[in-house]
Design a protein that fits this description.
The complex is a heterodimer of chains A (about 270) and B (about 300). By secondary structure, chain A is mainly α. Chain A has helices at about 5-20, 30-60, 80-90, 100-130, 150-170, 175-225, 225-230, 235-265. The radius of gyration of chain A is 30 Å and the shape is extended. The two termini of chain A are about 50 Å apart. Chain B has helices at about 5-10, 15-30, 45-55, 70-90, 105-115, 150-160, 165, 200-215, 225-235, 245-255, 260-295, and strands spanning about 60-65, 90-95, 120-125, 130, 145, 195-200, 220, 240-245. In chain B, α4 (about 70-90) links the parallel β1 (about 60-65) and β2. In chain B, the strands form two sheets. In chain B, strands 5-2-1-6-7-8 form a six-stranded parallel sheet, with helices on both faces. Chain B has a domain at about 55-260: Rossmann fold (3-Layer(aba) Sandwich). The chains are: A mainly alpha (about 270), B alpha/beta (about 300). At the A-B interface, α2, α4 and α6 of A face α2, α4, α6, α8 and α9 of B.
């Protein structure tokens, strides 16, 4: 690993520790890491949009035209129209002319809605309703695996569970008697669903921590183990950077402990 | 007079930072210890693996790396496992990255995987030994990286007409018509399936505007937070398979006999979950006991 790569990796480890330090309490290092992420993300997105979208999808389309002809002599001159619509969005900065920005917005929302409504209805409503009301496979009720979506039991559970969960949200009738019992079953179904989501969320958060541990381990290996094998210019600078960061972290922890003890004495 | 606090009251008022510290200690200790745990594979991951494994040499798969670096921990292992598996089988890949901060990260991952395939390897899965002869993965021949464009729903629809509509050139600036792999490749009709590895709403667009409109087999790799929302689409047949979080990635690594960061992390997951379950049980006991004490006290 080149020393420059190692320095970037060290920055990553520092930012990791700065971010995790929030678990103890808010501090300037956490604030720095937080603002850095937001700033870098915004800056990076602007560059990606410019080079990845505006240049190939607009400027390069019009490049065979001339600016003094307002690119109307370009072979693909119609790209001026979306460009103009885009420029109209900037009128939002003017109090007097901000209404003009409604034209491109209206066009965009109109197109999006026209595309979205039939596809969303078909794919997120109709197909889901159809899947919920599928004919129950009584012959294969318990199946090879009872929790498999192809077993009759799962099909029945999905149907009954969906109806019961919907009944829980029906407030025009008091939740009493049989109706109340079904509503209670519905809330149990919802809770099981939330529990599954919670379990997966725990796994997701632990995964983030695991990834940071893996990178920290790689960083430690890069600093010490056999780096000269892959990098002939390997030298003490790797360990110096490593120990500087360790020293910094240990110093910060000691400082926090001393401050805590002092505040208790007062 | 100060009220006497029993162990359950103390449990309920425990500073949460002790829980964080305990969890960190368990995670670090488990990660440091060198042991492996068995990975049981599930049908929804097996269906993805079996489909991709059945593809003949030269077929094309669209792999959508639709996540930002903040989801890298869970989804990168999936990307590495799926892409390496496809390239081992000489299946060609069209990459997209419709998440705004994803393209540079995706480019780095593509280069890393390309490098890892330069050496000979032996894999053992489905009871058969597969010898892979190391080879150079060539841009434009083995893969095309289209990069990022905003408004993912419109891009997904546009690719159904022609990839060149939204991506006149690839991520590196080469016109698509100049890439050997893209000769005769117009739209999804020439693609065997789409594998969407996503950490956000882009998956909804792939389901509604992609699979729903163009009817290609769609397979998902999702973050743990998202995955339970997408199981209904598996039941309805709109999605052919799901890999959920680090566990899904570990299962794919297991199936492809290609252990990576996901399998490496599963032992930590196991013990971290033990700790979380322990605290949930203790928290509930503490809650019910202190409630009983309050009720007995007439409060």
């Amino acid at each position: 690993m080149e020393f420059s790569d190692f320095l970037w990796m060290t920055c990553g480890i520092f930012l990791t520790l700065a971010t995790f330090s929030f678990l103890y309490k808010d501090n300037p290092f956490y604030k720095f890491a937080e603002h850095l992420v937001v700033g870098v993300s915004a800056g990076f997105f602007v560059v990606v949009l410019w080079h990845g979208t505006l240049v190939p999808n607009l400027f390069q389309k019009l490049e065979d035209g001339d600016w003094y002809m307002l690119w109307l002599n370009s072979s693909e001159w119609w790209y001026i129209i979306p460009a103009l619509l885009g420029v109209l969005m900037w009128t939002r900065f003017s109090k007097e002319y901000s209404w003009v920005s409604r034209w491109p917005m209206g066009l965009y929302i109109g197109i999006s809605t026209g595309i979205a409504i039939p596809l969303e209805m078909s794919n997120r409503v109709n197909k889901q309703l159809h899947a919920m009301m599928i004919e129950i496979d009584w012959a294969n009720f318990f199946g090879g695996n009872i929790l498999s979506t192809t077993s009759g039991f799962a099909q029945l559970l999905i149907f009954v569970g969906a109806i019961a969960a919907l009944i829980y949200f029906f407030f025009s009738k008091e939740h009493k008697g049989l109706f109340g019992g079904v509503a209670t079953f519905g809330i149990w179904i919802l809770m099981i669903g939330f529990g599954a989501s919670f379990g997966y969320t725990v796994m997701a958060r632990v995964s983030l921590f695991i990834n940071r541990m893996q990178d920290t381990k790689d960083w430690g290996i890069a600093a010490f183990n056999n780096a000269e094998v892959v990098n002939p210019h390997y030298g003490a600078q790797y360990q110096i950077v490593f120990w500087l960061l360790v020293l910094f972290v240990v110093g910060y922890i000691i400082n926090e402990i001393v401050s805590h003890l002092k505040s208790k004495q007062v | 007079m100060t009220e006497h606090k029993n162990i359950f009251d103390r449990m309920m008022s425990l500073d949460r930072r002790w829980i964080f510290l305990f969890l960190i200690v368990v995670c670090v200790a488990t990660y440091t210890a060198d042991f492996t745990i068995p990975i049981n594979t599930e049908a929804e991951v097996e269906s993805i693996f079996n489909f991709l494994d059945s593809l003949p040499e030269g077929d094309i798969v669209l792999v959508a790396i639709d996540y930002d670096p903040n989801n890298l921990a869970e989804l990168h292992p999936m990307t590495y496992a799926v892409v390496e598996h496809l390239w081992r089988k000489k299946v060609k890949i069209i990459f997209t990255s419709l998440s705004q901060l994803g393209p540079a990260m995706a480019d780095q991952a593509i280069r890393d995987i390309s490098d890892s395939l330069k050496v000979d390897k032996t894999y053992n899965y489905n009871g058969v030994e597969h010898n892979f002869k190391g080879r150079e993965i060539v841009n434009g021949v083995d893969y095309t990286f289209l990069g990022f464009k905003p408004y993912y729903a419109l891009i997904i629809l546009g690719m159904g007409q022609d990839f060149r509509l939204n991506f006149p050139s690839d991520y590196y600036g080469t016109p698509l018509d100049d890439l050997p792999m893209m000769q005769g490749v117009i739209n999804y009709d020439q693609v065997a399936c789409v594998v969407d590895l996503s950490g956000g709403n882009i998956t909804d667009a792939w389901i509604s505007y992609g699979q729903g409109r163009f009817n290609f087999p769609l397979m998902l790799g999702l973050t743990g937070v998202m995955v339970s929302q997408y199981y209904p689409f598996l039941g309805s047949g709109q999605v052919s398979g799901i890999m959920g979080g680090l566990l899904g990635a570990a299962q794919y690594e297991e199936l492809a006999d290609n252990p990576g960061r996901a399998k490496d992390g599963m032992r930590v997951q196991l013990f971290a979950h033990y700790v979380i379950i322990l605290f949930i049980v203790l928290g509930n006991i503490g809650f019910f006991m202190s409630r009983r004490k309050r009720m007995e006290g007439g409060n």
